[in-house]
Structures are given as C-alpha cells and as structure tokens.
Amino acid sequence: MTFQDPAVDLDVTAQTISRAIAERDLTGLARQLGTLDLSQILDIGGRLEDRQRAVMFRLLPKDRALEVFERLDPALQRELVHDLQGGEVAELFAALEPDDRVWLLDELPAALATRLLRGLPDHERALTASVLGYPQHSVGRRMSPAYVSARPEHTAGQTLERVRARIDDAETIYTIPVLDATRHLVGIISLRDVLRAESSTALEQLMVDPHSALATEDAELAARRCAELRMPALPVVDAEQRLVGILTLDDAVRILEREEDEDSARQGGVEPLRRPYLATPVRSLVRSRIVWLLVLAVGATLTVQVLDAFEATLEQVTVLALFVPLLIGTGGNTGNQAATTVTRALALGDVGPRDVLRVLARELRVGLLMGLLLGVLGAVIAGLLYSPGIGLVIGLTLVGICAVAATIGGVMPLVARAVRVDPAVFSNPFISTFVDATGLVVYFVIARAVLGI
C-alpha cells in the first residue's frame, strides 16, 4: 500500500490509516506512524474509531506511546484502557504522574480503578491514594504530591543539590515551597532566584510570602488564581497550612479549559462531550443533547399557555401577532447577554451570591436604558407602519421586556451559585424559555391597557 506524505491534510492521513488497519497492513502502518509528530498522532487518534485507535497505539514505540497516552483526554484514555491488554494498561498507568492517574481513575469503573491501583508499587499507590482522598471537585484532587521543597535555613547551594536529586521525580522544579520543621508553608522561592544567589545565601533571605490554595477549595477557583498570578506552581495546603501538594500551571490551564468547555456547552443547551467530536459515537452526541431538548420543550409550553390565555386579545387586534417573534427574540437575547456577563464575572470572582441586590439594581438600569433606546426606535417604526397606538404598545413593551430580561438573566446565575448548581445550567436556553413567557405577558397586558381591549 502507498501512503500519503504526512504533510497532506490530516483527514486524508486518517483515512489512509483506517484502510491500512482494515487491510491489516501493520508494517506499512508502523512505517507511516514513524513519520508523524506527536501533535499529528493526537489529531489523527481523535478521528479514528475506538478499536482503530487501539491498533494504532499498539504500533507506536514505547516512549512515544506513553507521550501520546499522557496527552489524551481522560475519556479517550478510558477507551484505550478498555481495548488494550491488561499488561499494557498496567505499564501505562504506572508511568503516569499521580495527578494524571486520578484524572483517568475518575473516568474508569470502580472495579477496574481498584485493580489498577493494586498493581502499583507501594510508593506510587500511596501518592495516588493521597490525591484520591480529596473531594471530587477540589484542587486537592488535581494537585501533584511530587514536588521539591526546602527549609529556610538551607543555602542556595544545598537547595540546588536537592533539585538535582529530585529532578526526575518532581512535577516541577521552577517553584520551590519553603517549609518549617513541621511542614508548615512559610515561604516560596523560584529556581531563578536560587540560581542567581550566592551558594552560601540562606533561603530565608530570598524567599517571599507564599500564595496558596486550601486542598478542599474548588479546583476552578484555585486554577484561576494560579493563572492570574502567573505562577509556575501554586502550593496546596491542608487546614493547618501544611503543604500537601502543588498545582502546576499546565494543570491549572487544563482545569480552566475543561470548565469553560462545560460552561459553553451548557449555555448552548447540550452536555459537554469531554472528547474530540469526531471520536464521539453518534449515540453519545444524541445523549448529550436530548435531555436538554426535552427540558426546553416542556418549558416552551409556558409560551403556548400564555398565547392561549390571550387568544381573545389577538383575535381583536391581529397585528399584535406580527410582533411576537421580534419581542420574544429581543427578550431572550437581552437575558442571554446579562447571564453571560454575570456568569463570566462569577468565574473571575468579581461578584458572588452576596452581591445579588447590587447586580439586580445594575441590570435593571441597564435593561431600562437599552429598552428605552430600542423602544423609541420600535415605537416610531411601528407607529408609521400601523398606528400610533400600536407604536406605543411596541415601545412600552420593549422597555418592559428588556428590563425584566436583563434582571432575570443577571440574577439567575447568582441564584444558581447560591444553591450550589452550575450557573451555566441556568444560562441561555433556560433563561430564553422563561423570558419568552414573561415577555408575552408583559406585551399583552400593555396592549390591553393602551388599546382598551
């Protein structure tokens, strides 16, 4: 079989690899894989079916296979674990860092996770178990227990010796926590400062006050702080300020990417896939969307009920029906804008549930101002096209709908956070459905009052 040059489109390369697997041309496939770099292999692996991916993985050199496995999404790691043989899985699992093992274990069935843990050497099993002991969404669950620490009385020279001794085992060496005799975190120092200092300089003269995260703190909040501080690693401590691990910047970015993917998906009315789109079975795509569609369909019955309740009003002034799509669309968009803005502010720590009244007042003013701008324009256009009365109804309704939608959209994420629900769940689809029904009530109430019907 003749293979395409690796510089061609990855879709073509993936199709070529699929044919090679189907025709059992494993020699040619191994030769083709040897011409691809790591990023190409990862991209192609995300385009193959599960069993094809497993065959491709088995043909990779051992070191390259480990690199690929470490970079895969946990969901794809789970599929590979399912398709590979027990010995291969145990070897790959043992080669992972403790925090990466926990990412994978969270995806695996309990029986398989337990079996893999039992196969680890005692030291590695203890490190992994220490991470597993923290709550599901805490930073303790995502930290690495493999780090280099030092004491305040150590000199720069002694610290460099410690770094060299642990350089192959530690998750990172660029940020060094400084601990006292009882392992309390008392400072932090960068490797750059250690290298710059005279070898006889004590660390207590070089270290700075540390930023840290409590092990039970929400992983997203700790990750965001690590990214904002631009720290190579954020120390993680227990309730008594004893160091238990570190959160590295790459793990912080990984956490934030995962959370943002989840929020984006739920704002669009689907569940996150947690794996590449082309590697996701059709049944999983359906499962990620159908529940939301059912929920939104049930919610849309509110709009139907409102229209039914005001059927007599529509019969008397049929022109009102022409503006229904415009008004509910404006209300939904206004609510979504407010919800997106406040959800983002929540993620950044700019606001919290305690600020609900301030957010409500602020969004009410924003909604009224936007409603006035749109309402004047709508009143003029509708008044010229139909009648001054219709124009006044449309103008007043836009003011009311924008004010209500902005207020609801701004407050709902705060309410969600207060009741410990993901704010994204209450975002765009849910708010649009709720605001549609509320906006129609406002519309018909104003129409009855202005037009006297």
Automatic annotation (TrEMBL):
Presence of keyword Phosphoprotein: no
Mode of membrane association: Multi-pass membrane protein
Sorted UniProt keywords: CBS domain, Cell membrane, Magnesium, Membrane, Metal-binding, Transmembrane, Transmembrane helix, Transport
Transmembrane segments: 290-310, 366-386, 392-416, 428-451
CDD domains: CBS_pair_Mg_transporter (cd04606)
Compartments where located: Cell membrane; Membrane
Record-annotated CBS domain positions: 143-205, 206-262
PROSITE patterns assigned: CBS
A family per Pfam: CBS
NCBIfam families (UniProt xref): mgtE (TIGR00400)
Similarity comment: Belongs to the SLC41A transporter family.
SUBUNIT field: Homodimer.
UniProt protein name: Magnesium transporter MgtE
Organism expressing this protein natively: Brachybacterium hainanense
Gene: mgtE
